[in-house]
Structures are given as structure tokens and as C-alpha cells.
Amino acid sequence: MSxxxxxxxAWITIAFFALSIVGHWLFGWFAYxxxxxxxxxxxxxxxxLVEMGRDTFENWQSEFLQLLWQVVGxxxxxxxxxxxxxxxxxxxxxxxxxxxxxxxxxxxEQLIADIxxxxxxGHGHAKPHRFANEDAQSKP
Length: 140
Fold this sequence. Notes:
By secondary structure, the protein is mostly helical. It is built from 6 helices and 2 strands, in the order H-H-H-H-H-E-E-H.
């Protein structure tokens, strides 16, 4: 799997962010120049940078950071296995392990260890993408 395909969502998000921040600052400059001219003053870069910096960070505080915390924070806690998110996974895994032990007998522990190793499962947490990489490497 190529780096671009693997992180396509991130690249699209970065592109949207870059376009929006450039547009925000560009149209902000036009508005600043218009306002300066309407007051009979020359537009200066330094006051514009201060005003746009303030407006940008105010916008980030009210919108981006709130959304970032909600989406990324919750996704992170789901990934690391907060008690709320891993309760069902742990219960399901315990049931499957019990079924394997019931059917596989003496080979059960080795079979469970092999499955856990293949999916990078350790201490209740799975690490993503390893299985997909193994499949891609094993194909002719």
C-alpha cells in the first residue's frame, strides 16, 4: 500500500486546510486594504498581520480546537482502549478465546498466541496496519 493511499484522508484534510487559510488571509488583506482606503489611510502590513493573527486564533479556538478535541480526542481514546470503548472488545475476545480453548484443546494457547502475534495484539490493544502489510507482501 503506498504512502499516499494510506494517508489520503490526511492529505485531503491538509489541502482543505491550506486552501482555507490562504483564502482567509488573502480575502482578509483585501478587506483590510478597503477599510484602510475608506478611512483615507495607507494599508500597512504589520497591523494587518496582528489583526489577522488575532482573528485566526480566535476562529481556531472557537471552531478547530473544539472539533479537533471531539474527533481526534475521542478517536484516540477509542484506539488506546478507554474503559468505555474496549469493554465490548474485551468481552468478545474473551468469548472467542473460550471457544478456541473449547475446540482446540491442548493447542489452544499456541493458536491464540499466534493470532495475537499476527494482529499485533498485546495487553488488550491492537496495532493497526500490520496485517494489511503482511497480505500485500505475501501476494505474488
